[in-house]
């Protein structure tokens, strides 16, 4: 039975493992018959593949593991690792760059101290260990140094190849995040497809119509969501303004759309102004009136009016036309008629 078992990933056979075999055979004068290496044709034809590997790994005096990302991604390789570790055999894990020692954290070898990597010092350690076990022949330093250099050069080539290919795996957190993003994109795509289907349906309906009135009715039926949303903004604005008295609403309208100071009716308008000042809705300095934007009801009204203003400005042409037909007004909050007719505000006063 072979004394040395080389555990490796098939994908690494040519660039990583074969140069290492050459180092053992040519550089350390290890008898090739003493090396079990599945990619080298060491499994006879017709035998039970897993059973043959199991027999040889159990009988080997030394198990050398060529640890790469390919190795760690192979269930078969991990089974070999587990079998060697469980049998308490002499194992020599060699971490092949660009992989690092962190590779062992997700394996049965976590905590193992005799891990080697690919450099001249670690290769000397391996040579000394194999000499001690009587696994080498008569070593010639010149031949050994040449084979070491060839092996190290092959690893450099492997590193460049892996850098071009990129990582074979990604962290779980990154993978989960990408999955979530994919689901979001799939949902967004489905929504876009549904929108396109609705538009195509609209076009087909319009093709069947002859008069403009019917066309408008169809367009409105396809814009019900936008119209309903606009009505919600209108209702919210009205609800917030209904919590204020008519003078306060008048002040809000005035200072949103006019730059000069508000002057109430000379007869009893100032009485209402004084009451608002007493309730902290406004600040009054002689005849200058300033709205208290920090008052909760004022903040609420301002927010609702801002949202309504944005909705009016962003309406589609179809909904804009529907608004104008419904109210007989352009969708402009700086028009007091919109406040009185659309928001249904009563008793508003203009500056005197």
UniProtKB/TrEMBL annotation:
Enumerate the spans annotated as TIR domain. Answer: 1-146
What does the entry give for GO biological process? Answer: signal transduction
- Alphabetized InterPro entries for the sequence: TIR_dom, Toll_tir_struct_dom_sf
Q: Which residues form a coiled coil?
A: 175-216
The record's annotation in SUPFAM superfamilies points to: Toll/Interleukin receptor TIR domain
Keywords, alphabetical: Coiled coil
Q: Give a Pfam family name.
A: TIR_2
Going by the entry's taxonomy, the superkingdom of the source organism is recorded as Bacteria
What is the name listed in the Swiss-Prot or TrEMBL entry for this protein? Answer: TIR domain-containing protein
């Amino acid at each position: 039975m072979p004394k040395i078992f080389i555990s490796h990933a098939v994908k690494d056979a040519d660039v990583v493992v074969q140069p290492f075999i050459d180092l053992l055979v040519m550089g350390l004068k290890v008898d090739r018959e003493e090396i079990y290496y599945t990619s080298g044709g060491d499994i006879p034809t017709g035998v039970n593949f897993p059973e043959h590997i199991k027999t040889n790994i159990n009988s080997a005096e030394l198990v050398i593991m060529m640890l790469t990302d390919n190795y760690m991604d192979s269930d078969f390789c991990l089974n070999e690792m587990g079998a060697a570790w469980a049998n308490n055999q002499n194992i020599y894990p060699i971490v092949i760059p660009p992989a690092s020692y962190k590779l062992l954290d997700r394996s049965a070898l976590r905590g193992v101290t005799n891990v080697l990597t690919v450099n001249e010092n670690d290769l000397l350690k391996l040579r000394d260990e194999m000499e001690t076990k009587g696994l080498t022949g008569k070593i010639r330093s010149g031949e050994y140094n040449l084979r070491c250099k060839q092996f190290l050069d092959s690893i450099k080539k492997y590193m460049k190849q892996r850098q071009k290919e990129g990582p074979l795996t990604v962290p779980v957190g990154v993978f989960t995040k990408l999955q979530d993003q994919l689901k979001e994109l799939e949902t967004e795509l489905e929504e876009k497809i549904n929108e396109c289907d609705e538009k195509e349906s609209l076009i087909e309906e319009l093709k069947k119509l002859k008069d403009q009135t019917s066309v408008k009715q169809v367009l409105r039926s396809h814009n019900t969501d936008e119209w309903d949303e606009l009505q919600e903004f209108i209702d919210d604005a009205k609800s917030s303004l209904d919590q204020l008295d008519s003078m306060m609403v008048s002040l809000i309208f005035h200072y949103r759309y006019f730059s000069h100071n508000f002057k109430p009716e000379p007869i009893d308008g100032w009485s209402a102004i004084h009451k608002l000042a007493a309730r902290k809705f406004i600040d009054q300095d002689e005849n200058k009136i300033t709205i208290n934007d920090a008052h909760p009801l004022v903040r609420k009204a301002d927010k609702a009016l801002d949202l309504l203003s944005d909705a009016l400005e962003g309406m589609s042409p179809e909904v804009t036309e529907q608004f104008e037909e419904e109210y007989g007004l352009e969708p402009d909050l700086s028009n007091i008629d919109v406040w009185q007719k659309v928001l249904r505000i009563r008793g508003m006063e203009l500056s005197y």
